[in-house]
Design brief:
about 280 residues; eleven-stranded antiparallel beta sheet; 5 helices; about 40% strand
């Protein structure tokens, strides 16, 4: 009876500790602006998205039913100092990974319904989208319109090499870029007189775009309504406790009575430990 009681206590202790350590909710305080323009305050299941979500889980309080919202259901939502807008926009869908890049410089534009992440909000906004295939699209918002900044990588052949012994020119495969976004930014940011050279040296990369837009806002002395916070890594610390109970019994030929009839009492042990988890910032292209 005593052994059974100890086992029960250890089991309950393990269950309680696991519940405390691992049952943390991902629902964080948030707001949603629905498709009617009404602002709803509640909680969103925040997943620290590396790719833009295609839907979110929202509840008005922690006991209410969960609502699944898509971009057509939510004009905007904000959670954990991040803002996303639900929009219908153009998206460039050409593969960006070098082993999948093709030879066609033409854009592969589709019309899609997306959640875009706000990077800057002001007189010119900057928005970001990465999909599950690691395709990155950047957008500016001007005069109420979300405009895709167009960019594409593709391969081409260079036939200007030296003549080979066979009488043919040597051919090299080169990675080329189709960069209309340079001209788009020059027009959109033209109220900053000295920005063109910076635009020409800005790659289609979120970090470089952020530096460009900070320079632009300083140049035109315009207020930044919203800027996404810079991400930093952090160290997470945890504790765990547990217990174990083990017994040993032998069965077999009567010749081994000294083992089969022996009494081995249960062994009870406690265990404890710590965990360290280094969380790196999300990778934004």
């Amino acid at each position: 009876m005593k052994n059974a009681t100890i086992r029960l206590i250890l089991t309950l202790l393990s269950v309680i500790i696991c519940e405390v350590l691992f049952s943390q909710s991902n629902f964080l305080p948030a707001y949603v602006i629905d498709n009617k323009g009404d602002t709803l305050h509640g909680f969103i299941d925040y997943r620290n998205w590396a790719t833009n979500p295609s839907r979110i889980s929202f509840r008005e309080d922690l006991n209410s039913p969960v609502q699944s919202l898509k971009p057509l259901d939510a004009k905007e939502f904000g959670v954990d100092n991040e803002i996303y807008v639900g929009v219908i926009v153009e998206a460039e869908m050409s593969p960006a990974e070098l082993n999948r890049v093709g030879y066609n410089p033409a854009f592969n534009i589709v019309r899609d319904t997306l959640f875009l992440q706000a990077i800057f909000r002001g007189n010119i906004g900057l928005y970001y989208r990465r999909n599950a295939d690691n395709i990155v699209n950047l957008y500016i918002k001007q005069d109420g319109e979300y405009v895709l900044l167009r960019y594409k990588k593709y391969y081409t052949y260079d036939q200007s090499g030296p003549m080979m012994a066979t009488g043919h020119l040597s051919v090299r495969r080169l990675l080329a870029e189709n960069k209309p976004y340079i001209g788009q930014l020059k027009i959109a940011l033209s109220d900053c007189a000295n920005i063109n050279s910076r635009i020409e040296n800005t790659g289609y990369d979120l970090k470089q775009m952020i530096r460009l837009f900070r320079y632009y806002y300083d140049c035109v002395d315009s207020d930044i309504i919203f800027e996404r916070e810079r991400e930093r890594g952090n160290l997470q610390f945890g504790l765990f406790l547990g217990g174990s109970s083990s017994t040993m019994n032998f069965t077999g030929d009567p010749f081994f009575n000294y083992l089969t009839r022996a009494s081995f009492g249960p062994s009870f042990d406690f265990t404890a430990g710590v965990s360290l988890n280094l969380v790196f910032p999300r990778r934004f292209g």
